[in-house]
């Protein structure tokens, strides 16, 4: 599988994660992104021994889009700290069922993950081990019973966007786990990691890298300028 490299320097590797592959090795035994990228670096740079590549954040298996990896331990440590402090801006695009009541808003929920079922639920704030989840959304376009949303994360909880949009009454197209009443088996989840913005961990320069979802159904229902070719600034 060919992985699109969006930006690379001595410290960072930003790529476009393909849909339906795990970020790292899991119980499925399927080929994973981290292992593939390490193998690619080993070949391209003729590296002896093990290749270092730091995993500092994750995307759900069915989600595609921009991801950042660290090529040095210094970059990994600093990026991990930036993620912990929520100073890295992450924007997602999602096609959801229906049209939210407000054009833009902030969603605040408390979430609990059942690890055995690998499913997250909205719970009360005093529920044991509940974690606060916050995101902002904006409706970019609505057409034929669907809406294209821009979503910015303030926290990084498992399945956060999927759960919170479903709780709002607008589950993501193709999400059988959190929108099983509206979606059909085999449909592809219409959630895409659109952009990531942060200060370079070593050069201290502002950096924004974008990628765009494949222009097929249901993305092709929309004409928003977000749906175009990848850019780097």
Give the helix/strand layout.
Layout: E1 4-8, E2 12-17, H1 33-44, E3 54-55, E4 64-70, H2 73-84, E5 89-97, E6 104-114, E7 119-123, E8 131-143, E9 146-153, H3 160-168, E10 191-199, E11 206-210
Parallel strand pairs: 4-10
Antiparallel strand pairs: 1-2, 2-4, 3-4, 5-9, 5-10, 6-7, 6-8, 8-9, 10-11
Helical stretch count? 3
- The rounded Rg comes to 18 Å
Low confidence ranges: none
Order of helices and strands: EEHEEHEEEEEHEE
Question: What is the overall shape?
Answer: globular
Beta percentage is 25-35%
Task: Please summarize the sheet with the most strands.
Answer: 11 strands, mixed
How does the helix and strand content classify structurally?
Answer: alpha+beta
- Helical content band: 10-25%
Short characterization:
With 233 residues, the protein is of the alpha+beta class. The protein is 14% helix and 34% strand. It has helices at residues 33-44, 73-84, 160-168, and strands at 4-8, 12-17, 54-55, 64-70, 89-97, 104-114, 119-123, 131-143, 146-153, 191-199, 206-210.
